[in-house]
Amino acid sequence: MTIEHIKEKVHNNIRLTDDDALFLFRCPDLLAVGELAAYANVRKNGRRVFFNVNRHINHTNICVNRCKFCAFSRTADEPGAYAYDLEEIRNRATEALRQGATEIHMVGGLHPDLPFEFYLAMLRTVREVSPLLHIKAFTAVEIAYLAGISGLSVAVTLAQLKEAGLGSLPGGGAEILRKEVRDRLCPEKISGEEWLAIMEEVHRAGLKSNATMLYGHVETFEDRVDHMRRLRELQDRTGGFQVFIPLSFQAENNPLGHLKNPMSGGVDDLKTLAVARLYLDNFANVKAYWVMLGEKIAQTALCFGVNDLDGTVVEERIGHDAGADSPQTMSRDGIVRLIRAAGRIPVERDTLYNELRTY
Ligand code: V47
Ligand code: SF4
Fold first, then answer.
1. Model confidence, pTM
2. 16-358 CATH pick, 3.20.20.70, 1.10.10.10, 3.30.40.10, 3.20.20.10
């Protein structure tokens, strides 16, 4: 196989195989892979790059799981454990609204004691602040947990959350879907098959969601391709994924840190985003999450197939607890400048990718 062979497929809109994706991951010519990904992206999205004005609320770090890559979670009696009450959530949502946010991104640990009613109340609290704030909340892992504590089916759990204000789901908790890797990373977490099954129900319930992949630790390129293949297959069936977001592993303060892949770094970050753009031909958007990548790689990624930057964020715990040295927030002006300096056109979007304003 050669890069020319893959180029021909991309130019003729022929779907890449798993072997093609593996070839691209192993290809030492980063610029050739990036150029092809940039071509595929511009063909789909032009030179426009989305961003959104959002605020993350990590409502609790108390979690019954102990994922080995997670520097965020605590047991209830550990120093640094916290859980926001409804007032603290209301204050953060109110501040977000004042700062022009259109989205609240709310995820947290699997708290051992909070009742299902509290999660409904969290959603209602944000909705009371403004019905214009889209609430993107709860990973598939949290949905499985909420169904467990409520005693309701996943479908009814989703219906009640939707009724209380849930607008869509973020893409967390996917990690690496393959069992052998998951057993090493997060044995207590729902399986990859369950994660996919919940996302399928989410999409069938008429909700959109995102999809992530945590990379740069113990996984192989084959594991990454297997992960993306399963996402691509589900997307073929439902069309419910809005965006793919690779999450670059942050190695501090967690037991998996010493297993950080020595090959990880800027080249691997850009290659992973580029391969995602080429292989996930049924995903409209590939997002560079600057919190984990740093601003400079996130900006450079705009020339490697990426068409979406997340977001103003404001207060982030998960990546920063694990050593991310990016700032806590980026202003709207800062993001616009970053996109323009990459020769692209900044477009502010809402959570569902409706265009709000072109800069
Ligand atoms: O599920 C945890 C990851 C995720 C680490 O959908 C880590 O728009 C790197 O999913 N190093 C939560 N990653 C974040 C997330 C997300 C972020 C931004 C946007 C969206 C979206 C989703 O963070 C977790 C886990 O995969 N994570 N620990 C770590 N040490
Ligand atoms: Fe809990 Fe999520 Fe951290 Fe796992 S990644 S320990 S489920 S907060």
1. 0.98
2. 3.20.20.70
